[in-house]
Amino acid sequence: MRFLFLLLIAMPVVEMWLLIHVGSEIGAFYTIGLVLLTAIIGVRLLRQQGFDTLWRGQRKLEEGQLPAQEIGEGIVLAVSGALLLTPGFITDAIGFAGLFPPLRSLFIRQLLSKMVVADMQGNSFRANRGPVQDGDIIEGESWDKNDAVEKTDPQKNNDLR
């Protein structure tokens, strides 16, 4: 948590320093143009790769497979897109790293190692390693609002019969 707070404070300061430094070297107009150019290129690449990932995920779902890789790619692409739309050169570099397939696969391996998926029978699996041990499972229960009314209102239950 402390790291995240420090990152949220330090990153904008470093980005501003870098933008000012680049602006003083090449001029404000060219610096703004460069930031806009990286955003436009990034959005186009993001759109293309996002649609490719979406189609692959749909194909896997139609085949009855878990699209874990595609879910991971979607998360990495969403974060990369947000970083590319944020003005700055460091965020653009990190965003482009998420669009570069070999680096993205490294990010996804890390993400999948943390992911847990449950099937309809209640069996839980790590996305890339198999069954989850009992100590890793948090069970819960949910119900519909109408179910709660039927259980508490005996008059309504009689009307339904």
Key descriptive features of the protein:
161 residues; mainly alpha; three-stranded antiparallel β-sheet; 7 helices; 73% helix
Topology:
Blueprint: H1 2-26, H2 28-62, H3 68-85, H4 89-99, H5 101-114, E1 116-118, E2 124-126, E3 130-131, H6 145-152, H7 154-160
Antiparallel strand pairs: 1-2, 2-3
Helix pairs in contact: 1-2, 2-3, 2-4, 3-4, 3-5
In short:
With about 160 residues, the protein is mainly alpha-helical. It is built from seven helices and three strands. About 15% of the residues are buried.
Structural commentary:
It is built from seven helices and three strands. Helix 2 runs antiparallel to helix 3. The protein is elongated, with a radius of gyration of 23 Å. Helices cover 73% and strands 5% of the residues. With 161 residues, it is mainly alpha-helical.
Shape: elongated
**What do the pLDDT scores average to?**
80
Note the beta-strand portion: under 5%
* Separation of the first and last Cα atoms: 55 Å
Structural class of the helices, strands and pairings? Answer: mainly alpha
Q: Kindly report the spatial arrangement of strands forming the biggest sheet.
A: 1-2-3
Number of helices: 7
Order of helices and strands: HHHHHEEEHH
β-strand number: 3
Low-confidence stretches: none
| Main sheet specs | 3 strands, antiparallel
What's the Cα radius of gyration? 23 Å
The helix content is over 70%
